[in-house]
Amino acid sequence: MTLIDRAVIPAAGWGTRCLPATKETPKEMIPVIDTPPLLYVVNEAIDSGLEFIHIVTSRNKHSAEDFFRRNHELEDVLARKGMLKERDMVEKIGSLDERNIRFVTQNEQKGLGHSIYCAMKKHDSLKERPFAVLLGDDIVVSKKPCTKQLMEVYDKYRGSVIAVQEVADENVSKYGIIDGEVISNGRNGHRIYKVNNMVEKPLIDPPSNMAIIGRYVIEPQIYSILREMVDQYSVTDRMDSTARTLRSSEKWEKRKGTATFRRGEKRIGGKVVLPAVERTRKMLEPPIYHEIQLTEAINQLPKEYKTRNFAYEFEGTRYDLGDKFDFWRAGTELGLKRDDIGPQIRKYLSELKL
User: Fold this and answer.
1) Which candidate in 78, 103, 115, 147 could, as Cys together with 83 as Cys, close a disulfide (CB 3.0–4.6 Å)?
2) How confident is the model over 297-345, as pLDDT tens digits?
3) Do the beta carbons of residue 85 and residue 104 sit within 8 Å?
4) SS (HEC) of 134-155
5) Domain coordinates of the chain in residue numbers?
6) Are 209 and 168 in contact (CB under 8 A)?
7) What are the strands, taking DSSP E only, across 167-275?
8) Alpha-carbon gap, residue 127 to 130, rounded angstroms
9) What is the mean pLDDT of residues 141-161?
10) Bridge partner list, 242
């Protein structure tokens, strides 16, 4: 019997790759034909047997909460019009919020690791047993849900599990990349790796071309590591703010002609009173400054808690909906599989003159 019964779905990013559409709407809510990506991801969690779903959202965008809330007025309108199929569909979506879904607000976007930290801080149950993470802008289409595949690997090996896929050499710098060794060919030849290290978006000398995609099963001890990273981030953020303030002060005082400065110093009465802020910030900053990286926290688990990390080359087709081409590809390929519009799309594509 699996220990995993809950999921965290981060959906609070700025969505900068999809502007201007994401200025007010999370990319997780921009529909692929007629279905928001977030609903695909929630359904995957439910189909994987997860009972409790924690969705992390931004304080500025509320469409996800509205989408999963019951809308009795709309249900009544659909019923009166005889649109019973649509009424049942809307009612089913709304009932998820009453049974399964809890929302967590991420007040500041400090990275994926911070998003997971916010959910764990609010819900103690996430600190007690392993849980799944499904990124809200990644759709994975497969016979067996991708998250379920990872859960099965966890149940066998008892360690955090990351979904990976092979990417072309020119795309390696866009992803977190694993350094690992194959320990099993897994189901249908899909490889399972013992992970030694993970590198976030390597620009040179990547350890492999096996890229981390948006599905994880994570040990609960990660909370302590994330909390330490958040505290560290707060210190460096305050120091960076101090540095900006002092640099601004330098410019003002230079214009007033009241003091003489070397770069990075403040003098009062001829004495330097400001330590080397930039050097101190460098000593304290996270591996990639201004983001709390989930991959770095997972990297720390074996070192601090003697756990093990694994990666699984999942079965299925993945769509990265932060990528505009992948968004179009998702709509086209998923549309072709539908009975209502598939034949029309196929006919249109066959007649398209390129």
Assistant:
1) 78
2) 999 999 899 899 999 999 999 999 988 999 999 999 999 999 999 999 9
3) no
4) ECCCEEEECCCCHHHHHHHHHH
5) 6-224+293-322, 233-284
6) yes
7) 176-184, 192-200, 210-218, 267-268, 271-272
8) 8
9) 95
10) none
